[in-house]
Hints:
This protein has 212 residues and is an alpha+beta fold. The protein has helices at 2-46, 68-71, 74-88, 94-118, 123-133, 148-169, 197-205, and strands spanning 49-57, 60-67, 140-145, 180-182, 189-191.
Amino acid sequence: MEGVTSAAVTQPRAESRRTKAPAARRSLAAALLLGALGAAVALLASRQTWAEGDAATAGGALHQIAKGSDVTGVPAALAIVGLAALVAVFAVRRTGRVLVSALLALSGAGTIAAALLGAQDPAALDEKAATASGQAGATIDAVTFTPWPFVAAAGGLLLLLAGVLALRFGASWPAMSGKYERGTGHGKATRTDPDRPEDLWKALDRGEDPTN
């Protein structure tokens, strides 16, 4: 009876693992795609024209444009942070993975907020008008705003979704594995545990890459 009971318990557990594995792979692929695409979109949108208009100068109207980086540098900066967090998810485990996943989600949320706040902000254009005209109170006439801030916000949304997936399914994703090497003194295999700083230093001293 004991053998039958043990086999009956083991079989459902193995079946559960096989069921969860495809879901983990799908969520991992989706998070990687969403995170990388979101960061790329936010960075691209930050380099495009967000607003334009004409500044009145002594020589006549002077056309001015303001790129996303002129309006706010937050979306581009958070896109880079989000991309770094996406990579770091695989370098940490347990609580560290939860924190990094939360950082990824927050980077997306911050990108959305900054992009939407800058979508109708003429301050960068007014600053350029003041520089072009030499008058501190100069402003831009007939300001035209482009859709690029909303494209940046869409990139932030993709980052946010990647972070949500990491928070929800990250515990089942693989991490950087330890490296097994033959011990020099006892002829036994040794394992480098990436969660133990002392093991990482020993591996580096041996000339090994502890992340493999």
